[in-house]
Fold this sequence. Notes:
Helix content: 25-40%
Shape: elongated
Structural class: alpha+beta
CATH architecture of the largest domain: 2-Layer Sandwich
Largest sheet: 4 strands, antiparallel
Strand content: 15-25%
CATH superfamily of the largest domain: Lrp/AsnC effector binding domain/regulation of amino acid metabolism (RAM) domain
Order of helices and strands: HHHEHEEHE
Amino acid sequence: MIFDATDKKLLDYLQSDSKQTNKELANKLDLSVTAVYERIKKLEKEGYIDGYTVLLNKEKIDKNFMVFCHVKLLQHSQEYVVSFEKEVKSLKEVLECYHISGDYDYLLKVLVKDMAAFREFMVKKLTTINHIGSTHSMFVINAVKNTTVIDF
């Protein structure tokens, strides 16, 4: 697949607002609507575009308490890793989970209503997962930068 400057511009425009019509994109890129449609389909087929989503206003839905939580497993055996990852994927409060290097094994991005909801999440959900040795939580005071746009 040939990936050119126009494809990069198209991806930039789609990342900033994926609801733009093909006609709007065509005008910005000085292409025909059909050419834009074909490029988008090609980018989807080749895996450059994984999907489309909506970003919700956390305050409006009353889920504006964000926590980053480090998790350390008791051991690093395959059984413990697979078991933990399977269970953490089912927790709706966990937006993101990364297996990381360093003092802790995992970094979780957790979103809940407030401190009471976070405590309930910790006591009734996260700490009930087998194989967790310890956790360390950090509460977000203010989001200085929060973007989904990937520059290339």
